[in-house]
Amino acid sequence: MSLLDVGEGVVEIRSTAGDSHLSGDDFDRRLVDYLADEFQCAENIDLRKDAQALQRLFEAAEKAKVELSSVTQAQVNLPFVTADANGPKHLTTTIMRSKFEDLTADLVERCLDPVK
């Protein structure tokens, strides 16, 4: 983790500490896994086994993560995310900030000591 000072087109690294392998992608992955698990329970299809569906899921998770920094809920809407013998499948759900915070609490905790 790095603390940066950004101003007037200049980025200055103020401090580096903690887990150098922890990034925003880890937060995205938690949301992707949650969404994929929920979809699998509902449709009996694991989106993580379909490269195109997984890419779309990562894009939607990142967008939702960003939205949740300023609102209390975010919509995830992936029409035609996959298909089976019965036809196309859609993923439409609402993610609450509180759910995202629960999913990522341990990741946030890993950031606290270096920040302090």
Task: Describe the protein's architecture and organization.
This protein is of the alpha+beta class. Helix content is 48%, strand content 30%. It contains 3 helices and 4 strands, in the order ββααββα. The strands form 2 sheets. It has a two-stranded antiparallel ribbon. A two-stranded antiparallel ribbon has the order 3-4. A hairpin with a 2-residue loop joins β1 (2-7) and β2. α1 (24-43) packs antiparallel against α3. The chain is elongated, with a radius of gyration of 17 Å. The mean pLDDT is 91.
Q: Overall pLDDT, averaged?
A: 91
Distance between the termini: 12 Å
> Which descriptor suits the 3D outline?
elongated
Amount of helix: 40-55%
- Give the strand order of the largest sheet, numbering strands 1, 2, ... along the chain: 1-2
Which blocks of ≥5 consecutive residues have pLDDT under 50? Answer: none
Number of helices: 3
Q: What is the CA-based Rg, rounded?
A: 17 Å
| Percent of sequence in beta strands | 25-35%
Give a brief description.
By secondary structure, the chain is α+β, with helices and mostly antiparallel strands. Helix content is 48%, strand content 30%.
